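Record pair follows.
FIRST:
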Amino acid sequence: MSTILVTYELGAGLGHLNRLVAVTRRLEGDHNWVFALPDRALGEPIVRRAFGDKARVLEGVHWPAPRDPDVREIPTHTFADVIGIFGFHDAGRLSANTAHWHTILQEVTPQLIIADFAPTLRLAIGSKVPVVIVGNGYTVPPPGQLLPPIRQHETSVPALSRANEGRLLAAVNAVRARLRGEAIDFFSDLFSGENTFVCTLPEFDPYRRFRRGPTVWPFNIPDVPLGPPVNQRSGSPIFAYLPANHPALPPIISALNDLKLASQIYVSGMTAQALAKRCSATVRIHAKPADLAHVLPNTSLLIHHGGLGTAYAGLLAGVPQLVLPFNLEHSITAAGLEQFGVGKSRPASAAAGAPDVRDLICSLLEDGILQEAALKAARNLVARRVIDPIGEVVKACQQHL
């Protein structure tokens, strides 16, 4: 029996965990499963649904996102700028989180680690235990080199971003020195393992220009059927999915109320009762995450913040999308949708103060060109879809076992 540690450190939603669970459920054999999660209360129900009592769930390392709204004004040109916002350059916090990993590793003694977006673990473990990494394009910068620009329109890296990368690498190697480990040459190496699988569509990979190896068809593309032409769809014309702290949530709710069209909404982090008090009778409230495979093929417009899994689902359903990104990763998702020609985006801050959100939604509902592009993109993805993308990852894991 092998002990396998499964973990991720950064990320507010469940996309990372869902990707890890998809891999682990395919591994054959009577393994001892240990999940170390950054938010145990959030993630443990997902693990229990997949493994029942056969898995052990621990509180892992967590790098919480800063709550200061001014943080969103900090320029982010490379992944170093992004990770720096979480305080990864703080040698004290980095040492404490590394020590927490050592405690877990001494207790668990895994033979294999399957991880997603877990740089502190890579720092702590070195090469003592094989690590298989699965991640999306955003979370896996190309290893063995300085961090390239993360925005598609940028061709060079500002000096301040290079300085941020230098500070991060200095903090990492200061911890490595205390651990008497070898120095790390490139900060980007912390996001790769003995085997690394970049699970994304190329259109959503911010490092597409710089990546040497191929990407893998993403595991978190849900099984969503393509709907009929938009004018033949029978469900609510609008489905909205936004987090409770999204700055554009109030104007979106106001627009849905004013339109008096049948619509549906799910707001993560807000109770259905609290949401219902703000919505009119034409807005159906989802108390829990909606079944996208059922909702989207019958919807004419999907409104969301830019989550990658939601964008994938909308693509497969052939539904036009309005994206309101409020961080860099969401903006990358919005840019990918625009490459397919199926999405329009507006920064969350702009949408929050705009009186014309209602008019924007109306124009998208009537945009026949956008609707045709959405159907075309869905058919394109169906033709491109890989039947068993997880097989390659499972094979790599089994070789280490």
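SECOND:
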Amino acid sequence: MSMAARRTIVGRIDGEILKFTAGDDIKLDLELVEADCIGSAAHATMLSRMKPPVLTPAEARRIVAALVSVMKAHRAGRFRIRLEDQDVHLAVELRLTAMLGDLGRRLHTGRSRNDQVATDLRLYGKAELLGVIEEASLLAESLLDMAARHLKTPMAGRTHLQPAMPATVGLWASAYAESLLDDLEVVAAAYRLNDRNVLGSAAGYGVPLAVDRVLTCRLLGFERPVRNVLHACHTRGKNESVILAALAQLMLTLSRLAEDIIIFVMPEFGYFEYPKEYGTGSSIMPQKVNPDAAELVRAKAAVVAQQAAMACEITRGLPAGYNRDLQEIKKPFMEGLASTRASLRVMTRLVRGLKPNETALRAGFGAGVFATDMALRLVSQGVPFREAYRRVKERLPELKAMDPDEAIAMRTHLGGPARLDIGGMRASAGEWKKFARTRLERYHAAVSNLLGVKYPQLE
């Protein structure tokens, strides 16, 4: 049996259908209230400046002031989205109508919820991605700090988890730092793709009004508009999938780092001491300090990768124009951003808390770790490499361990354990941190100018 029909701003809708189609939006959209109000402020301002204007400058200022009030109410926990509202867009419009009467009803002129939600997600994504970039930079810096402190601390390098060749804690930590810096190239590309204005594309086919999309682009602090209005509609879903795919690359790095930590804090290795305050312990075994934060990061990497695949798969089979399927991408998109940022913050704490155990690290150097060094020593005496390889392999049981410090000191080529470019990587991390902070400051300045109050403080 169907639930009773509910009255909404767009007409009466069967209760069961309304509940099904609203889905998680009445919860998720609470994260988009500020973005929706900021986008609406830009739209109202544009409506007052277009030719001919839909709103007077005074009317636009009243709407913007009311939108700021909605944002403050939301921060105070006094704004909610009801099932009858369906989403944040209609909830804000109803609140404005209650505050401003017919003036609130005029705001939706020339736009659709399609370009509203796309704008909201791009504004939300802009701020979140800049947070991701800064937090990844901080983790890279923490890894580089560790590398600098333990630049020459010996650590057996491994392949297939088996002892392989001489290495250092510095090499290990800075490798993950550089991986993060590479990942940020991908995240920044996703940021730049996201940093484009879609407001004014309406339902994907424009409107017979002289809307100024260049103006709203400037007011919202976007780099440039998406040029084609239908393409602006089509970027929904694809844009989120690009961002999630970029986040998945970051999470791959975090997952491998987490896996190493999990292995190397095992008593059988004991390479690092896991911070006791970062383990939740066992409900039955008093001695346990479980690296479960690292384990959850490892799991979340799989989840974010799946969220990226989900966004692609939902978008893949859609025909031209807007389709409601895209609503199902909102949750994985927002959760993927949240999971990545949380994982970056947690891994930063773990890295800062790890304490290398030099005694255990040196004990990991069996004679076999130096087999390649010994073969190359023969090569330096004129023996062909394959012959040197054979000789060493045949006498493996007779090999004696070298001095790890001496073996490490011989690796002086660029990127080798004795010649790590910590300074160059630290400079790159600083540049990424500056990239994030300056762009966030520009965005906040644009929004402050738009709202007429200092943002994000709303004062």
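COMMENT: The chain has three domains: 6-106, 113-145+159-364+420-448, 367-400.
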